[in-house]
UniProtKB/TrEMBL annotation:
The keyword Zinc-finger does not apply. It comes from Streptomyces lavenduligriseus. Belongs to the 3-hydroxyacyl-CoA dehydrogenase family. This is 3-hydroxybutyryl-CoA dehydrogenase. Residues 199-295, 505-601 form the 3-hydroxyacyl-CoA dehydrogenase C-terminal domain.
């Protein structure tokens, strides 16, 4: 029977001063750098002498850059380098307090390493696996002392990324968890304690989203450039999903997803076939020089044009002239869109169900422009000119001469259909009719008119003056010159247009809301806390907001409605809204607007 960890010399307060890192690829080298910077003695172990030499060279270069940038002194750099030595045999870890293995994602390889370490290290040495896809429990079970085995999942690049997931199995001793958690804090990281399941928190949420993006591209729903731009500009992400897959490695992503699917049997985790095709062809992303994109050389971050790169010139059919724009609605989105068009020099008719509502919407725009003046983003003269281009109206009859009519009314199909039927009667022949819907079928709005070829989707994001993205949604009936018109208009109002077809969620919501739903399921299953999940996605994924922060901002009722639409259209069981979300909405806990959602907020 294995000796309990509590009977060994290690205690939670014991410093882990000497650390062995097994596997000196990019991640292992980065972890070694972090440890050495924090004053730890590091033994880097790799079976290949060349790889060990490359790791030392990379560490030398990284510390030299840090000195040039003023982040290290020459003396600190010399100390760091002196604390690192390399070896090609696991016996070098004999007197280590902690061993972190960062070997390839293979049970066979990792179990062999842990089994060998059992006969080499002291009884109190903690053995940590850096896996992000394999079962820590299964790895621990193969060890002679499973209570000292845990997961320690750093994120790439390890020196820059703050998140570390500390992964316990049912066999892990609490003292081991406490010791590595304390170490992570000393390394300047933010540790999050999680249980053992494929992907843990950050990758468990991230890879499902990446998989859906790959499937969306494979289905030719949108181009790789448009998918990536939509998620960067629509969600504030540092990278688009396909570019991120190339950075992570397409083969790595496939391995993680296979592990997730093996446990969940959720088809959303079943790797998109294109991931297998690219992997089998050796097109594994940046490291191979080609994946979803083509790169200047293997390992390069520079994307170079290939056969799929859009031509520099726009060869689309010419659009219709647009001089005046009608905006229907009186809410935040309508006033924001009217402001955007007026700033770009268009004459704008802002129509609502009453003159009072239209005037109130114009007043809201005036306040928005005044804030821009106060912040130095706009001159007082430009603000006055912009506001002067907006004419409020209490009837849609005022749209008789507009060239483009944009509706931004309630997200209710019956309401939108009635409005489009009215616009059909009021607007002149040749006027383009656009809906800002985020979840309803654009073609249903088009069929409410006698000219469905003139109808298109223009999905702005809130707040419209600040958000750069517009999803341009064609139906099967939309005319080419209508599509061209809207693309040209997007350029004039300085928005980035992405093309997509008329299906639920378009690009952004179709990828964003399943991710949010999966986060709710994690809490519902008591796998992790709200705070840990939010921290994991901000620190490990570079998200500007955690999923629960975002859900409370968007509104739980709005989120639930979008998830229901996605589930109804795609009929994937994994898209069914989490019961916890439904319960909160039923209880009137809708987020910030009601003072309570997943969290409570102070009443204003």
């Amino acid at each position: 029977m294995a000796t309990p960890l509590s009977d060994t010399p290690l205690s939670p307060s014991s410093p882990l001063r000497k650390v062995a890192v097994v596997g000196l690829g990019t991640m292992g080298t980065g972890i070694a750098e972090v440890l050495a910077k924090a004053g730890r003695e590091v033994i880097g172990i790799d079976v290949g002498e060349d790889q060990a030499a490359r790791a030392l060279a990379a560490l030398d270069a990284a510390t030299a850059r840090a000195v040039r940038r003023g982040r290290l002194t020459d003396e600190e750099r010399a100390g760091m380098l002196a604390r690192v030595r390399t070896a090609t045999d696991l016996t070098a870890a004999a007197d280590a307090d902690l061993v972190i293995e960062v070997a390839p994602e293979s049970y066979e390889i990792k179990q062999q390493i842990l089994a060998e370490l059992d006969g080499i290290v002291r009884p109190g040495t903690i053995l940590a696996t850096g896996t992000n896809a394999l079962s820590v429990t299964r790895l621990a079970a193969g060890s002679a002392r499973p209570e000292r085995v845990l997961g320690l999942h750093f994120f790439n690049p390890a020196p820059a990324m703050k998140l570390v997931e500390v992964v316990s199995s049912v066999l892990t001793a609490p003292q081991a968890v406490a010791a590595v958690t304390a170490l992570a804090i000393e390394l300047g990281k933010e540790p999050v304690a999680v249980g053992d399941r494929p992907g843990f928190v950050a990758d468990g949420l991230l890879f499902g989203y990446l998989n859906q993006a790959a499937a969306m591209y494979e289905a030719k729903y949108a181009s790789r450039e448009d998918i990536d731009a939509a998620m960067r500009l629509g969600c504030g992400l540092p990278m688009g999903p396909l570019a991120l897959l190339d950075l992570i490695g397409v083969d790595t992503a496939r391995t993680v997803l296979e592990a997730m699917y093996a446990e969940s049997r959720d088809r959303l985790h079943a790797p998109a076939p294109i991931l297998g095709q690219l992997s089998e062809a050796g097109l594994t992303g940046r490291k191979a020089g080609r994946g979803f994109y083509t790169y200047a050389a293997p390992g390069s971050a520079t994307v170079v044009p290939d056969a799929l790169t859009p031509a520099a010139g726009d060869s689309r059919a010419g659009g219709r002239p647009v001089r005046s724009v009608g905006v229907a609605g009186s809410g935040t989105m309508a006033s924001g869109i009217a402001e955007v068009f007026a700033k770009a020099g268009y004459d704008v008719v802002l129509a609502a169900r009453s003159e009072e509502k239209a005037q109130a919407a114009k007043a809201r725009i005036g306040k928005s422009l005044a804030r821009s003046v106060d912040k130095g983003r706009l001159t007082a003269e430009a603000a006055a000119e912009t506001l002067g281009r907006i004419v409020p109206a209490g009837s849609y009859d005022a749209f008789a001469e507009v060239d483009l009519a944009v509706e931004a009314v309630a997200e209710d199909l019956d309401v939108k259909r009635q409005l489009f039927a009215a616009l059909d009667k009021v607007c002149k022949p040749g006027a383009v009719l656009a809906t800002t819907t985020s979840s309803l079928p654009v073609v249903a709005c088009a069929r409410a008119t006698s000219r469905p070829q003139d109808v298109i989707g223009m999905h702005f994001f809130n707040p419209a003056p600040a958000m750069k993205l517009v999803e341009v949604v064609r139906t099967v009936l939309t005319a080419d010159d209508v599509h061209a018109t809207v693309r040209e208009v997007c350029g004039r109002i300085r928005k980035h247009a992405v093309d997509c077809g008329d299906r639920a969620g378009f690009i952004v919501n179709a990828l964003l809301f399943p991710y949010l739903n999966n986060a709710v399921k994690m809490v519902q299953e008591h796998y992790a806390s709200l705070d840990d999940i939010d921290a994991a996605m901000k620190l490990g994924g570079g998200y500007p907001m955690g999923p629960f922060e975002l859900l409370d901002v968007v509104g739980l009722d709005v989120s639930l409605a979008i998830e229901k639409v996605l589930h109804r259209e795609f009929r994937e069981p994994g898209l069914a809204p989490a019961p916890l979300l439904e319960h909160l909405v039923a209880a009137g806990c809708l987020g910030r607007k009601t003072g309570r959602g997943f969290r409570e907020y102070a009443r204003r």
